[in-house]
């Protein structure tokens, strides 16, 4: 076995040893595994475990914990066993924290008062984010066994009383909207294992989509929270950068500030996002992390019916029929509820992608490729694809400045474009409704069009993904008359057939102006109410 | 005459032609000019002009204009003539806007309602900031005759009803805390022409210090608002970056984001700063400039007596006796008013300067030096001095990232250091009281220690300068027993003798945490009240 394979085997042994702690063990799964993993929890978990992990969102569970209708230990054991099942089914785990989680839950149960707003709640964390006293490889073989650095959000969640119980997978370099690497291998979609769960927070997406978590933390620089939320039919929120602390993310190119990633939650309910943002910001993280703007989570009340712009397409790649149907259904509901619905005019999104992809790798990808080559692990096709986007190259300082000016000019043009939507009626568009991906979760190695999420990273606009429907073979026929506009459009168009996407969730995205994070969440609430969803709505699992 | 001298003469001819419009002309000034220019306005302006330009702050003038006790034209003519006098005395003008200003003031006088919150008020602008339909050289001979770009703040001020009447000088490269360049030459201090007015907004500082403006706009990346405010005994506010729009600043290295400049006001009263911030932010500039954080000017009410930390020195260079006396007098007054006064412990400010000076020129100064060489104009000593700071060099992308990490680590350490001040009594320090300069305005070419202002640019902390006292030959004796700690300290120590600094204003600075801009202004109000100053206080002119 070559060196890198051996090293990579160590990481899998570490994972497997952690999984082996599960007690009682999970029964043997069928071989081959079924296309959908959604029936497995009912079969392989106890009825009580199934109930606890599937029937509630984080807020309901926290209420039950606070009222002592439920012990943290019982809940934690249920989620621990669900995580093991999810690993067997979709390969989304890098480490199970059996002993630590049970010890922690018992400690929390022993307290006479709740420790904080997350008292007793099990939370899943993307492996790359690091975890105190835990190794962190962040998907690179070279970093296997390497240390974590403290992660401020993890520390805040822990101080708020949560239980960490599982760490989840990410793709090589974390610059993929899928979830494959040379250590843990391929994570698959719990709705259809032939499809990708998305990425880079793909382990989180798959775990939440299977019911194995109610709150997971991911990171997003091109869609890495929103794409897996969308592909797995759960909620995912990417705030504007500089609201949440970022320390503890292990990645290459640290110190690069051409485009800024952010952490954010994947959840089973809209309100869990508000809970998360509120509790993190209440700790005033800016007092320790001066990159942040000091602003508490400040829910906004809409003072008039929303004005929503629907981005039917971005002018480059036409979304698949189920995405179009979802936009039609949601926008019809919004219109019926008295909102104003207009069409969004996309402003040269192809140019934006060209700027963004160059901003991702101002060193031409050197830092990332060097780290991959250090261990000898192979460069995976989707890693190579993103690093080799047209124009990506190692820049001089002056070229970097010129590129930053291109970015800033584009951002300013987009701001003016948005402000101009007030021209007709004096009210600018409140939010954009759009897909987060040009189709439902695609087959593996086909996620080659990022801009439905990444465009908003270039602009640093906040975005929330919410589940809408599922691919429907009757309603979502392939349009064989469609003539693709370009190669990217053709690639995407040819991907689609209802049979290929069977069972796949269809989600949409709400986008707001930079730093209008609270407005995005208020708009999502209004939209979901228009869709007939009340506080008790939960995505189908 | 060499090419660059000829070109530079064109710019002076342009200026002189603009000054020649003044009517009636200013009488011939004494030759040689007196050391202090402060007695000239009374002699060379009419009594009414003197009254209008010297006896009120912007807020009082705006009230008089609104109540029509005063026409904008009369006021504008007074400030225009004062600006010409100031040019003759201290050489602070690049262009007088005689015709435009009078036309504008007459238009405003003709309206039945005020145009906006600045209706009729003459405002001075640093030349580098650009002005619609005006050339802008930004101190570089190569750029003489070059175009301005639109300046958002200017547009906001104009839409608010102001009158632009004069554009003012800045030093070569604008990276000097003095005010000399190869086009307009040396601007001197109106209190003592042997001293520098500071820079880079030195023309603004000198003009305000002589009574020729009540509101000027400058820019600050190392002290360029606060140093001239301090040297000339007026108010100057540097907000946290990303509060005010920056577009329209003409300078080299555009696109560089290692350290961010900001515009800000120089004023004759504290409340004029609040007025300026409030009116600019009320226009919601973030809707057009997405680099800004959307937050209105939100005055804070202090809920307990201030806790002030006095930075007696920064651990590197000991401030001169008048600065120490000023800190003692102000802190005594604060203590007597019931505030808690503690000592600030400076956290390795020498290291901070090393980081910052390298951040200023990630291209090793190439862009700036190339532009200077393009025309053949000489590199001035203070420009060379800042570009040749130890460690400044052209960086690779990876070296740039490493330097940005150094910056971020230092910022995080400082935030922790500040937060730790809550350890003893549960209340962290609200603001730091410190000098803005290691002494009063020094002799020309001696401004070689920036960190009393620039340190807070590295940290991006807001700071306001306010006038305190004047160098007093009796109280501020040189301390001949002092043993300098290092070469910089020796240079500064040896500069001082009360005779050399005769007449120089002594100012101090209030610093707050990043983005606590409104708190800084609330603290300044509390401090000035403790000093016995009410709303009617104006700096001595």
TrEMBL record, chains A, B:
Gene3D superfamilies: Amidase signature (AS) domain. Residues 74-520 form the Amidase domain. This is amidase. Residues 1-34 are annotated as: Disordered. Belongs to the amidase family. It is an enzyme of class 3 (hydrolase). It catalyses: a monocarboxylic acid amide + H2O = a monocarboxylate + NH4(+). Keywords: Hydrolase. Its EC number is 3.5.1.4. Residues 1-18 have a biased composition (Basic and acidic residues). It comes from Phyllosticta citrichinensis. InterPro entries: Amidase_CS, Amidase_dom, AS_sf.
């Amino acid at each position: 076995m070559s060196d890198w394979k051996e090293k990579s085997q160590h990481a899998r042994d570490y994972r497997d040893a952690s999984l082996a702690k599960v007690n009682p063990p999970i029964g043997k799964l069928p071989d081959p595994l079924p296309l959908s993993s959604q029936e497995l929890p009912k079969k392989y978990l106890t009825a009580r475990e199934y109930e606890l992990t599937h029937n509630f969102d984080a807020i309901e569970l926290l209420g039950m914990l606070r009222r002592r209708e439920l012990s943290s230990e019982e809940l934690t054991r249920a989620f621990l066993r669900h995580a093991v099942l999810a690993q067997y089914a979709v390969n989304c785990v890098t480490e199970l924290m059996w002993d630590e989680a049970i010890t922690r839950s018992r400690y929390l149960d022993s307290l006479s008062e709740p420790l904080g707003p997350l008292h007793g709640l099990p939370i899943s964390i993307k492996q790359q984010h690091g975890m105190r006293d835990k190794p962190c490889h962040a998907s690179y073989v070279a970093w296997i066994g390497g240390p974590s650095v403290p992660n401020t959000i993890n520390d805040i969640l822990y101080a708020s009383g949560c239980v960490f119980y599982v760490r989840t997978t990410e793709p090589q370099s974390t610059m993929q909207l899928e979830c494959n690497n040379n250590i843990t291998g391929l994570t698959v979609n719990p709705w259809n294992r032939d499809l990708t769960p998305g990425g880079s927070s793909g382990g989180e997406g798959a775990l939440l989509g299977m019911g194995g978590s109610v709150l997971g933390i991911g990171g997003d620089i091109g869609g890495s929270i929103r794409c897996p939320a969308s592909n797995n039919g759960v909620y995912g929120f990417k705030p504007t950068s500089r609201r949440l602390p970022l320390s503890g993310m292990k990645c290459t190119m640290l110190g690069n500030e051409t485009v800024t990633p952010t952490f954010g939650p994947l959840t089973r309910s809209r309100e869990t996002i508000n809970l998360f943002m509120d509790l993190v910001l209440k700790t005033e993280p800016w007092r320790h992390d001066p990159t942040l703007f000091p602003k508490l989570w400040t829910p906004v009340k809409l003072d008039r019916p929303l004005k929503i712009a629907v981005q039917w397409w971005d002018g480059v790649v036409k979304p698949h029929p189920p995405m179009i149907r979802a936009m039609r259904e949601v926008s019809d509901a919004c219109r019926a509820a008295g909102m104003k619905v207009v069409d969004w005019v996309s402003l040269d999104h192809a140019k934006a992608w060209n700027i963004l992809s160059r901003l991702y790798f101002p060193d031409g990808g050197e830092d990332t490729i060097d780290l991959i080559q250090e261990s000898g692990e192979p460069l995976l096709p989707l890693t190579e694809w993103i690093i080799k986007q047209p124009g990506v190259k190692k820049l001089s300082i002056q070229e970097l400045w010129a590129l930053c000016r291109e970015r800033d000019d584009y951002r300013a043009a987009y701001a003016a474009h948005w402000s101009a939507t007030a021209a007709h009626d004096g009210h600018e568009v409140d939010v954009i409704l759009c897909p987060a991906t040009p189709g439902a979760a695609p087959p593996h190695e086909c996620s080659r069009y990022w801009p439905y999420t990444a465009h908003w990273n270039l602009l640093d606009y906040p975005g929330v993904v919410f589940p809408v429907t599922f691919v429907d073979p009757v309603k979502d026929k392939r349009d064989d008359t469609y003539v693709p506009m370009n190669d990217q459009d053709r690639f995407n168009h040819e991907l689609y057939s209802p049979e290929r996407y069977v069972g796949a969730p269809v989600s949409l995205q709400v986008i707001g102006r930079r730093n209008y994070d609270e407005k995005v969440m208020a708009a999502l609430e209004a939209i979901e109410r228009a869709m007939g969803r009340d506080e008790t709505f939960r995505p189908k699992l």
